[in-house]
Amino acid sequence: MTEQLIDNEKLVLDIIRDYLNKSRILDPETIVPFIQSRLKESSLYLTYYAIELILKSLLKQKLIVKASKLTHDDILKNEKRRNIFEFILEHPGTHFNKIVTILNLSGHVVVWHLNMLLKFSFVKKEVIDDHDVYSIPDVNIKTVELSYYISKKKSQTIINYLKQNDIGITKTKLSSALQMHINTVNKYLKILEDNEIVSTERHSNKSLYFLNDNIPKEIRVLLTE
């Protein structure tokens, strides 16, 4: 992209902002004549095709979105939407109900603001265990999945039990102590073991599970949230 095109993008984006400030929604097809008329006032001429290319670039960068009254710079000006974004930023892998509960917002308000954050690529959505979970785009899927599973009540229950009982325990006894189905215990122990949160030792032909003393720093941060 040339420097001139960047300058033209900025100019066109300013015109679009002015257009949207008049309570209009963005329609890339009908906005071009408005942009052309405004450019004439600044003694700058761009062809219809050049304006279309700039619009496509702005749309691709998610600086503008079709059928919206907002631009990228407007998104975090709304306090509730900013709070939702910051919560997701701090808690990658969070799910809808947690946002509603922790931020004390109604479901339809959260749906509206999440949709806006998704449209402008402030957040991304993944599906884990048939649940929609949210994170910011530059967080990798492994971190999202780990954060999601660690935040689950069953994971927390297992972790807390192992903290308080550091002599080691078998899967069967852990299942009995926590009144948790053995398949569920298996699932979460595997996740915790794969991520070096839990380790195993063999004693008398039995596998005993312990909370790892050397949990990686990036994971330890997630455990203390």
Outline the structure in words.
This protein is mainly alpha-helical. It has 3 domains: 3-72; 78-141, Winged helix-like DNA-binding domain superfamily/Winged helix DNA-binding domain (Arc Repressor Mutant, subunit A, Orthogonal Bundle), CATH 1.10.10; 152-223, Winged helix-like DNA-binding domain superfamily/Winged helix DNA-binding domain (Arc Repressor Mutant, subunit A, Orthogonal Bundle), CATH 1.10.10.10. The protein is 58% helix and 11% strand. It has helices at residues 3-21, 28-41, 48-60, 79-90, 96-103, 107-119, 141-151, 153-164, 171-178, 182-194, 217-223, and strands at residues 94-95, 124-128, 131-135, 198-203, 206-211. The protein is elongated and about 85 Å long.
What order do the helices and strands come in, and which of them pair?
Elements lengths: L2 H19 L6 H14 L6 H13 L18 H12 L3 E2 H8 L3 H13 L4 E5 L2 E5 L5 H11 L1 H12 L6 H8 L3 H13 L3 E6 L2 E6 L5 H7 L2
Antiparallel strand pairs: 1-3, 2-3, 4-5
Helix pairs in contact: 1-2, 1-3, 2-3, 4-6, 9-10
Output the keywords.
single chain; 225 residues; mainly alpha; Arc Repressor Mutant, subunit A; 3 domains; three-stranded antiparallel sheet; two-stranded antiparallel ribbon; 11% strand
Rg over alpha carbons: 25 Å
Shape: elongated
Multimeric organization: single chain
The percent range for strand residues is: 5-15%
Summarize the structure.
This protein is mainly alpha-helical. It is built from eleven helices and five strands; from the N terminus they run H-H-H-H-E-H-H-E-E-H-H-H-H-E-E-H. The strands form two sheets. Strands 1-3-2 form a three-stranded antiparallel sheet.
